[in-house]
Amino acid sequence: MPAAPELDALDRAIVNRLQAGVPVVERPFAALAAELGTDEETLIARLRALAERGLVDRVGPMYRAEAMGGDVTLAAMRVPPERLEEVAARVNAYAEVAHNYERDDEFNLWFVVAVERPEDVGRVLAAIERETGLRVYDFPKLREFCLGLRLEV
User: Fold this and answer.
1) Residue 71, SS3 per DSSP
2) Average pLDDT along the chain
3) Cα angle at 45 between 39 and 47, to 5 degrees?
C-alpha cells in the first residue's frame, strides 16, 4: 500500500470544506478562503498544488443526470497493457465520457458515461466497442451512496 500523501492542516481543511460544496457567489474562492482563515490567492495556489500532485482532480459541480432526464453509468474494459494509452485516449474523445482511470486489475480501464437520454448509454458503449475492438462492460448504478472523505485537521 502506498504511503499516505503529506498534507498540512490547511490542505486538509480545504479538502474537507470543498466536499460540502462551493458558495454560489461572485468570488467563491474568496468566500471559501475567508471561511478557512486564508486569502483567495493562497487557496487557489493550494488547489493548483493539490491538482499537480494528483490529489485533487477537479473542483466543480456534480450533476445528477438522472434527475434531469439523462443517465449515467460506470463502464470497464480489459485492455492489453500495450494499448492502454491509445484506448484511454479514444474513450476520452467521447463528449459523454466524464473521466476514466486505470486500475491494476483484470478490468484495467474504468470510465463514467453521462448522457442526456437513457437510451444513449448503449449507443456510446457500442461505439467505443466498435472503435477499439474491445468489449465494454456496463455497470449501471443500482443504488446511490453518498460518501464523504474527512481528513483530520
Assistant:
1) strand
2) 89
3) 100
pLDDT tens track for 77-132:
999 999 999 999 999 999 999 888 889 999 999 999 999 999 999 999 999 999 99
How far is residue 114's CA from residue 121's CA, in Å, rounded to a whole number? 8
Query: Residue 94 falls within a domain, yes or no?
Result: yes
Whether 3 maps to a domain, the answer reads no
Grid coordinates representing 110 are 474504468
In whole angstroms, what is the distance from residue 125 CA to residue 107 CA?
Answer: 15
39 & 87 share domain:
no
- What does DSSP assign to residue 95? T
- Residues serving a catalytic function are 99
Q: Are the beta carbons of 109 and 65 closer than 8 angstroms?
A: no
Phi-psi region for residue 24, left (φ > 0), alpha (ψ -120 to 50) or beta? beta
Structural domain total, the chain:
2
> Which residue carries 472503435 as its cell?
131
DSSP 132: H
Q: What is the domain range of residue 21?
A: 9-52
